[in-house]
Amino acid sequence: MFSVRGRGTVRRLAAATLVSGLVATGAIAVAGPAAADEVPGASGGATATLGQLKIADTVTYVRKVNGQDVVREVGAGLFEMKVENGGKLQTYCIDFWTGAHENFKYKEVGWDQSSLHNNADAGKILWILENSYPKVSVTGLAEKTGVEGLTEETAAAATQAAIWHFSDKIDATPKDAQGKKLTAYLLEKATKVEEPEASLSLSPSSVSGKAGDRIGPIKVGTNASSAVLSMVAGAPAGVSLVDKTGKAVTTAKDGDEVYVNVPAGTTDGTAEVKAEATTKVPLGRAFVSAEDPSQTMILADSSDSTIAANAGVSWAKKGAVPAVTVAKDCAKGGLEVIASNAGDEAWTFDLKGTSYTVAAGEKKTIAVPLAEDEAYNFTITGPNGFKETFEGVLDCKTATPGPQPSETPSTSPSVEPSPSTPGTTGDTTAGTTGGGDLAETGSSNATPMIAGIAAALVVVGGGAVFFLRKKKTAGQ
Question: Does residue 134 have a cis bond before it (omega within 30 degrees)?
Fold first, then answer.
């Protein structure tokens, strides 16, 4: 069994930009709601650090052991996450059998880049989020559902239990009688809702052209009223952001397109565009680990948070002028590398031991197959110091329970090994073989967990999901 893992030191992340987005719509087989309007090579979204389970109560579930049913208890409810540039999030988890790591960095992504990518019930999970706690208060739930006597803890546990039914096909049952009623109500009423759009994105995340041209367009996507735009420090003098008419711009609304104006005579080079917005992250956005495999989260509540997105630009007077974006393709089990050349000469580069040539003015899409949970790390280079490194791990599926050590089956509730208590950083991973068992969310033997009191804690699963980090070259 995997427990919540605190760490004495947080692994250092390379300076990176998440390169995300949907592959072509026709390549994704998604039953249910329409996907958000994201495209290959988009970047941006909230970055947050996973905290502890804050509001939770006990639920039971049935675990197969030696071919027989064993009833077990876990804590279930809301986690807290801290946004990198300010703000807090509350999340539920959506991969019951995968462990989680406290203090890991997470990145906001579309459903296509999470374990929800092929889940026909993903829209029902969003309906639950929109119609239960914390979006609807305990008092509001009583009026809406007729379920009286709920607390924040029992409402959170009941909501999480309903979500697991659709994310993992797990029938978890709140121990609290009123919580059971709320879970039953949510499961009966849930209907499919359309996937939310990103809080902030720039797409594509890499563009190129010739000095003297307006390079782009770069499309801004945001649920904020507007985003503030700027060139990152270090851009050559005269390089600026403009609209399609050439007028200087410093802000943009959702759907606006901007260009990078590179004056003629500017020395060959690169620069970076930055967008920032203060907004609430949309309910139902998925959050995946930005480091190693860790459970996937889904957003239940957001304070106002500062969100950022970046896009790179390169230019030259003549020769090849490359740009590269990478997107995860969960439907096909791999990566989609999109390499383009805005120059007047061919560009040849190496990708994982294979040579590819992109002709002048050409855009080439390259499929890179990967096994589930396979890590990757590759660098693509080009003229004028062009160098992009991409690394991560492909994890697009919810985990399944692995074999367990022999134990005597019982029909009475069985409490899992004691997890670490809130505030500790030591590993308390219990023995497991194979695919792993549930990472608990903090149950005790018979007493529900009460917010604010140090109680036993282990995180309930949410699939370890692919993360794509894009290292910028020095000086950008």
Answer: yes
Which residue(s) pair with 297 in the sheet?
93, 287
- Of 181-185, 385-389, 391-395, which one has max mean pLDDT? 181-185
Closest to 401 (Cα-Cα) out of 333, 464, 461, 458: 461
pLDDT at 94 > cutoff 70? yes
Other C-beta atoms lying within 10 Å of the C-beta of residue 267: 10
Report the amino acid identity of residue 375. Answer: A
CA nearest 147: which of 138, 134, 136?
Answer: 138
**Distance from C-alpha of 393 to C-alpha of 400, rounded to nearest angstrom:** 18
User: What average pLDDT does the segment 383-396 reach?
Assistant: 78
Are the C-beta atoms of 215 and 207 separated by less than 8 Å?
Answer: yes
For residue 427, count other CB atoms closer than 10 A to its CB. Answer: 13
Nearest Cα neighbor of 457 from 426, 433, 436 is 426
Q: pTM (2 decimals)?
A: 0.77
**Pairing between strand 413-415 and 68-83?**
parallel
pLDDT of 405 higher than 60: no
Residue 370 CA to residue 198 CA, distance in Å, equals 26
Query: Which residues are CB-neighbours of 346 under 8 A, at least 6 positions away?
Result: 320, 357, 358, 359, 360
Q: Is the CB of residue 49 less than 8 Å from the CB of residue 103? A: yes
CA–CA dist 136, 152 (Å, integer): 11
Judge contact between 221 and 38, C-beta under 8 A: yes
Task: Please give the average per-residue pLDDT across 395-402, as a whole number.
Answer: 78
Token look-up 């986690």 returns 79
Is the separation of the CB atoms in 287 and 79 below 8 Å? Answer: no
Residue at token pair 């009286």: 148
Q: What is the dihedral of CA 209, 214, 216, 222, to 10 degrees?
A: 150
* Mean pLDDT calculated for residue range 96-117: 88
Between 418 and 306, residue with greater pLDDT: 306
Distance CA 57, CA 152 (A): 9
Cβ atoms of residues 447 and 56 within 8 Å: no
pLDDT-derived band at 421 (thresholds 50, 70, 90) equals very low
